[in-house]
Amino acid sequence: MNLTETLSTLETLADEKVRKQHLKNGARENLFGVKMGDIRTLAKKIKTDHQLALELWETGNIDARMLAILILNPKELSAAEIEQMVSSEEFAWAADWFYNYVVKEYAGKEQFRQKWMNANDKMLARAGWSLTSGRIARDAEGLDIPAILDRIEGEMAKVAPETQWTMNTALAQIGINHPIYRERALAIGEKLGIYRDYPVSKGCTSPFAPIWINEMVKRQK
Questions:
Q1: Which residues are 34's β-sheet partners?
Q2: pTM exceeds 0.90 for this model
Q3: Which of 121, 168, 213, 215 has the fewest CB atoms nearer than 10 Å to its CB?
Q4: Whole-number average pLDDT of the chain
Q5: Cβ atoms of residues 146 and 153 within 8 Å
Q6: How far is CA 135 from CA 73, 120, 164, in A?
């Protein structure tokens, strides 16, 4: 399939309910509103097509970009290309797909983490804090967790919402996975109050760090 054919196919799969939901969640107008399952099915049909993926990404269309993420070859992307792609996508759903399928799997991702955590670009910072959250949860050796807590306490209330979300995740992961720092993580969460009143569906855990930490710790027992 070429670019024109692929975009036409995506357009025929458009669902107005999905489109409205994406727009409600902060998406830009450049989208069709294709269900995630339909994007995955189309990706399986196309298989890996790196050139088509790059062409789809350049359209800026959200559905096209999410399809691109599934059919590109991450190993063919340079560090500069990955950084440009991360900074260019502000819709959280698509940004998180790119993080999970590309950034998180990249062999040299530590270079990104250290650089992006200090970036002025909100989407790079968002991804940098996501990488830090992963290190905190699974491979914290070498991390200066007290310094990370200092940054969260001093900066989280001031950063863009996109960055705030993953910074908060890092705070919660510290409290969940590192008992020695749990009391301080809980105190910072209470002090900042971020997501205290965040609406959650029945059965879901609140992103408010103290609630999130205590719930996950309870499940560990």
A1: 14
A2: yes
A3: 215
A4: 95
A5: no
A6: 24, 21, 18
